[in-house]
Design brief:
The chain has 339 residues and is of the alpha/beta class. Helix content is 40%, strand content 18%. The protein binds uridine-5'-diphosphate-4-deoxy-4-fluoro-alpha-D-galactose.
Length: 339
Amino acid sequence: MAEYKDDNNKKQILVTGGAGYIGSHCVLALLKQGYNVVIFDNLSTGHIETVNSLKKYGNVDFYQGDLLNYSYLNTVFKQIAVDAVIHFAACSQVGESVKNPQKYYINNVCGTLNLLKAMLENNVKKIVFSSTAAIYGEPQYTPINEEHPLNPINPYGQTKLMIEKIMEDYDKAYGLSSVRFRYFNVAGADSKGIVGEWHEPETHLIPKILASTHSNERTFEIYGNNYKTKDGTCIRDYINVEDLAEAHVLALKYLENGGKTNFFNLGTNEGSSVKEVFKLCEEIAGKKINVIIRQKREGDPAILVADNSKAKDILGWQPEKKLMQSIKTAYKWGIINAR
Ligand code: UFG
């Protein structure tokens, strides 16, 4: 536990959405580096249990609040000294964003505008932002580098692209420096089992397959098997959540050292098909799972793989964990927390 309590670096980071899946892993990574963390989360999808677990590993304060409530947000900024912000809080389900775009534009875009306003009012000028590969839209080539055209095909991706553009303008006008990370498919859990993926409902591939190993029917649905890929199923780039969290710490250091506003893909450069992921899950769980082939899910591109060389070159980031490790930690997390 001592490794989490090294207080050499007393910088204080406000983490919006720190009670959620990716945010909580990032909080752990910050605590390991001796940062103080303030979590700001409305607990709409995050969990108070997650906050309580994190508090055992370092200096963590928690404010339950919504980014849409500007006066409360501003009060929090006035109460605490914030050196930088890492911004995860957002609605993030692609399908839901198509059905209810208003929720996404208001929560994600207006929420971020409030956050940036409070930052400027309180002279906080550094932010690391959780963007998405969804801003690229239908891939025109693979692997996707940061120069790929930006054509999101759903409101979720649109909101993240709008925010990226807002951050560019705020840098030019107000000197607000940002690092925006375009995540590919984030997977796995903390290797010590402190935090993990906990979505309700769960829509993501790996936790869904693993959850099907707990149920009696043990049935898993593959969305489409006639894509133009090696085995007909979609290919994705699964980046381990602890590796992803490390990139955020590197981004903070980059900004602390005067690094300029920038944006990076976070992925592994390697793709795995749904069938390959499924086989690995069966192997790790030691169980056979029945498969049903369903229709393609609307808006699913055949292949999404990152070119991650920019993050390696500029931030010195190096993802280390293989897909197998992500699935193992996700499985362990699921077993401990079977819900
Ligand atoms: N899939 C299935 N069965 C399932 C669930 C998923 O076959 O029950 C397939 C999907 O069709 C897709 C792959 O597994 O081919 C991965 O699906 P996920 O839902 O786990 O992830 P997505 O690729 O749809 O989405 C992820 C993030 C989004 C982000 C997007 C970027 O969750 O937030 O990557 O492209 F926008």
